[in-house]
Amino acid sequence: MNTKKKSARFFLLACVVLTTNCGCKKNIQIDDPLPIETPALSIVPPAPAPIEIGSGSGTLLLQDQTDKNFVIKAGTYTGFQFKNLKNVTIDGLNKVKVEGGMVNLFAMNRVALMNFNIENSPYRAIQIFDDANDLILQGLNLINIKDNCISFRIDKPFTGDPSSFSNNIQLLDIVADNINTFFDAAGSVTNNGFTGLIKKFKMANCTIKNSPLLSDGVWLGCAENYEFSNNKIDNVNSQQGNHNGIFHVVGNGKFFDNTCTNHQGNMVRAWTCSITTPGTLEIYNNVVWNSSRYGAFEIQVPPSMKSMGAFKPIVSAMVYNNTVGLLNTGRPKYFEGRLLDLYNAYTTIQVYNNLLFNNADSEILNNSSTPDINFLNKFANNIYKEKASDAVGDLKSYRSVIPGVGASR
């Protein structure tokens, strides 16, 4: 029976009940066609028409707006300040630039900020204050930023109430060229609990390149259920000598499908803990190639964090199906570059199906952990090849030539 007949049937059944109750004798055939059609109901309200804002220059101010779509007038601006926005999109349509200034965001809830450039800023590109939930930054180009690109300045003590943490912060399709730290968030594990907690942080399809002083690409001080996926990092930290992590994160979540080449630092420094629920860590299907210092990944619980009263270990950590090669080539060399630098993590560890090649030796781990603290309960099918040609099809796609081992590309 088609949709119209179903609607008609419900309509007629209601009539049958009514006629029965009022003593009417007329017989009704419920499959007979009816001249009245019940219109379909839409559950998605139509989007509001776009409203143009800005003059094409100067500083753009916008505040106290709800349920609106805005487009920014094409031009070059000195800065943006947006405050107290809810259910709002702001789109530069790839025709807008902030030159030498910054974007300040205050109290953002269900806001998408899209498609414009920030260039040649001597300070930060974007600062986020007060509150931020369901905030999407997408399609931005951040070029020649001398300080941290995106500075997340929300550091509330976590109480369990939704107002005490940030939720669903997404960085999507952003290109950053010649920058310092890409994203920097306050947050910590303390004796009394957690501060600056971000739940469901996501960075996907972003590019960071040509940044000799990047240091940490992302620093998250307290994050639960994070995701880093499909990001590309190339030619970073060539003038940096500190121990950094391209993705340096405290908490739990996943890193997958990322590519990091021609760099200094671990691609991942995962300092692990559970926060509101038992957490896990997964690092899989990543490519790491040609580092001047350090191995591909690091997992640990630093002693300072372990000593905090709020610390809780994660349930498990898994490192699998990654492809890594030509690690820790710099001089002087204090240790060899390997797949994983493993410290005390107070959890079970699984390392399997990883592909290594063109390193100083065939060892898989730099294992500095205490055996009775970490339990390496799976360590299998990790393969090392001296020559790149025996491991991958080429040094562009890094496609593994060994079925089931390494990253699938």
Low-confidence sequence ranges: 1-38
Secondary-structure-based class equals: mainly beta
Q: How many β-strand stretches? A: 34
Total helices: the number is 2
Main sheet: strands, sense, barrel: 20 strands, parallel
Helix-residue proportion: under 10%
Note the quaternary state here: single chain
Given the C-alpha coordinates, what overall shape results? globular
Radius of gyration, whole Å:
27 Å
Alpha-carbon distance between the two ends: 46 Å
Provide the β-strand percentage band: over 45%
Overall pLDDT level = 90
Describe the fold and architecture:
The radius of gyration is 27 Å and the shape is globular. Residues 1-38 have low confidence and may be disordered. 6% of the residues lie in helices and 46% in strands. It has two helices and 34 strands. With 409 residues, it is mainly beta. The strands form three sheets. The chain has a 20-stranded parallel β-sheet that branches. A twelve-stranded parallel β-sheet has the order 3-5-7-9-12-18-20-22-25-28-31-34, with no helix packed on it. The chain has helices spanning 3-21, 303-306, and strands at residues 51-53, 59-72, 75-77, 79-91, 96-99, 103-114, 117-121, 126-138, 141-145, 150-152, 166-172, 175-179, 183-185, 188-189, 194-195, 198-199, 202-204, 207-211, 218-229, 232-236, 245-256, 259-263, 266-272, 280-284, 287-291, 297-300, 316-320, 323-325, 340-342, 348-352, 355-357, 365-367, 375-380, 383-385.
